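Let's practice the habit of predicting before peeking. Look at the sequence and jot down your guess about where helices and strands might fall. Then scroll down.
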Amino acid sequence: MVPLRMRPPEKLEAAARHWAGPGRAVLTDTDRVALQADAAAFGIDPATLGGQETGTDDALAVWPENWPILMTFLHLSTQWQWRREIPAMSGQLIWHGLPHTEIEATIRLLGHRREGRRIFEGVKIMEQAALPLLNAARP
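Done guessing? Here is the structure:
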């Protein structure tokens, strides 16, 4: 499968971590480097970024071309496949991901036939970014 032209996936990954995390974006080292580079390109001192750098700001910017991907991902929030860890008494859920058939159906139902492949690839990027947070041990 030939990948479609997309911007680097960091923004989609950050959006998925924001969704799957404890109510705020979890910046990785890659995110921080990208954020600092973006700030420097606009002549902004990265130390003034406050909430984004410290994870205290719940706002998350979404590029316009990523909006259909994000909305598709959010529409799929009830379709995640999971199972309980054995023994069942532990209560830990193991998240497996989103069924491809559900992703495809949601893209179609939302009317994104022309952009379907790009949206599908973007949703898979977000899914892979969310899975580690969903499967992280929770207290």
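How did you do? Confidence is low (pLDDT under 50) at residues 51-56.
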